[in-house]
Amino acid sequence: MLNRVRSAVAHLVSSGGAPPSRPKSPDLPNATSAPPAAPPQAPRSPPARAGSGGAAPARTVEARASFSRPTFLQLSPGGLRRADDHAGRAVQSPPDTGRRLPWSTGYAEVINAGKSRHNEDQACCEVVYVEGRRSVSGAPREPSRGQKEVTHESLVVGAIENAFQLMDGQMARERRGQQVEGGCCALVVVYLLGKVYVANAGDSRAIIVRNGEVIPMSREFTPETERQRLQLLGFLKPELLGGEFTHLEFPRRVQPKELGQRMLYRDQNMTGWAYKKIELEDLRFPLVCGEGKKARVMATIGVTRGLGDHNLRVCSSTLPIKPFLSCFPEVRVYDLTQYEHCPDDVLVLGTDGLWDVTSDCEVAATVDRVLSAYEPNDPSRYTALAQALVLGARGTPRDRGWRLPNNKLGSGDDISVFVIPLGGPGSYS
Amino acid sequence: MLNRVRSAVAHLVSSGGAPPSRPKSPDLPNATSAPPAAPPQAPRSPPARAGSGGAAPARTVEARASFSRPTFLQLSPGGLRRADDHAGRAVQSPPDTGRRLPWSTGYAEVINAGKSRHNEDQACCEVVYVEGRRSVSGAPREPSRGQKEVTHESLVVGAIENAFQLMDGQMARERRGQQVEGGCCALVVVYLLGKVYVANAGDSRAIIVRNGEVIPMSREFTPETERQRLQLLGFLKPELLGGEFTHLEFPRRVQPKELGQRMLYRDQNMTGWAYKKIELEDLRFPLVCGEGKKARVMATIGVTRGLGDHNLRVCSSTLPIKPFLSCFPEVRVYDLTQYEHCPDDVLVLGTDGLWDVTSDCEVAATVDRVLSAYEPNDPSRYTALAQALVLGARGTPRDRGWRLPNNKLGSGDDISVFVIPLGGPGSYS
User: Which chain B residue has the Cα nearest residue A8?
Assistant: First the structure.
């Protein structure tokens, strides 16, 4: 995924916003611009399927899709085995002795408590140098008469959106050619020319903690937050519902005996509830059902954005899920130059394992607690913070489970956290 | 339209949020709740059509659709003629001697400078009393187990959304039965149990001016603000584009000689711009074209929400516009109990004639200037404010036109303004 985004952004930068005569390699060494990108990616667990006895494993997996951990962790074979130990769940971070991540970015991860064999989160972080054919500046070129204005920012956003779409297409081709199945969420951060671009498709989350305050940099894509998009798709393309589902939402499942009675409903255009008379097709299973963590599209998926999963079908049915599962990210832009950041201002990226048991405010409190215990110019403070966040979500082994200090269950999921300082030592300049 | 909303809300209130055994008349006299509703409605001018020599007039118009002005203006036959005079453009308000509008709401209107024979804005304002079968309170009932929570607020929003949809359906039936054509925008305000509901479909606008600050209570629906919805519809239902239009957006019209070259584009999923190779179908006319006031859907309409217009077709084509023109409003809710309002806090509703030449901030400045010239408890101050806003948008006749003090052109359109005090004399209690 990072390759796609890197390639798209590099391509864009190298062409200066104009179409180049031929694609450029993103690996050109001559530096003119340096966008670090830090994407943790959490593969979605395949949903349990009625009648198939559990998750369907990939049939054939190529060598390049075999298990690994981020290269920047510099794990030895022994270290890789320890990182893969579900009983110990040791927190992994880049070694304190080696080269730091750009901007002294902090990172920590931990494997799940046994729900899948390997850690299915993946992360990478790179500084990309590309050769610019023209000078690239933040100022957009003057649009010609009769031509819509295209800002530099909207070109970067478009390049990232395109990268997600191309990656999804690539996964569709690999599925056909090599029988590689599955899918994943993706959260990508690109820094370019003073702006941070955060692109999210799935259930990872990014927040900025600035002066103790939380600024959301992504939003969650669930059957509830995307209800109207999903209903519209089902309404305009009823063949996608296969006569099995209704695109309408009701406060509860409609019973056959209620035929002809009036009940509250919502359609793709409505935010409120109104009454309708129950007809035969309202008895079909609802396209969007359940609430909170249990909300599902077509009784199958609980996350509505992500890459891959082209083969995913409705339980006991041949209906494809994919058109409802969209690969498009929402891209939010944060202008670093609009505010003077201090060393305690950070961008925190976490996979669902973190956010399942940790609120934004709890993260902000941990940011304050951990960073205040270190000197502002100590570059190891962001790794310490990432570790504290992962430990706080994992908990400690007690009563045959992983428990938090309040005795609630910790996250048994894989957990990965990046902490990117916005005004720390070695930050952008 | 008001009848529809009144009926829907009355129905809802009378049934206490539960389905009634039989529909109730909205005209029952026993008062338990009093929702005033103040909707100015601006009929959209039919767009000029190539080849038809101008706007297509309605063929047959029933007596009940004949010209009138709001009953609360209490116009005599002579007054009606003066209100209909395009040369004088006298500002009309309810007589100072008669019964005031609820809450001492202010109102003023003026006819256009000649663009259509009559004033095509319409307004009404009513207090509705309905009999409640159960006690209605702001607190939602406890949802049953397995049943989604339905708040009282979401029931009111749904009732209003439904009212717009039913009104649109009624206009479709009247078109077929009685050859009544045309369409209009609608802006509706409902007050119920401490909350103000503002529903907008079209290019009217509502703002709250509170303590001098502007709080937008509606947003504009234009081909630009609704680009992604329109593109998605064209993408999922390509038959609506009839092979004449492309759902993709380009910064400018693509030329045949550019076939095979790369150009920036945006599709229904994108907020940024990316490159694509120009193909034959990209040479079609763009679904969304133009910018600002000149933005159009299918080269025909500049407003993308409204009622009616079921017969509207693309210039020199049989393609219908209606699926792109949606009747659904956006409903915003303002809780009056969350803030202690003073007599200078007002909700201002205006048709496009006001907003074409007046910014939100200019309205806020006029609110301050006019209201400070009256005693806080003078109930005529809101009518004076409505008149000042209409006069400020109309201007004065000079240099063969209507001109503003800065010598720019005033609005030659119909202009209607309501000013609803949120903490004034006789306000809600």
Answer: B274
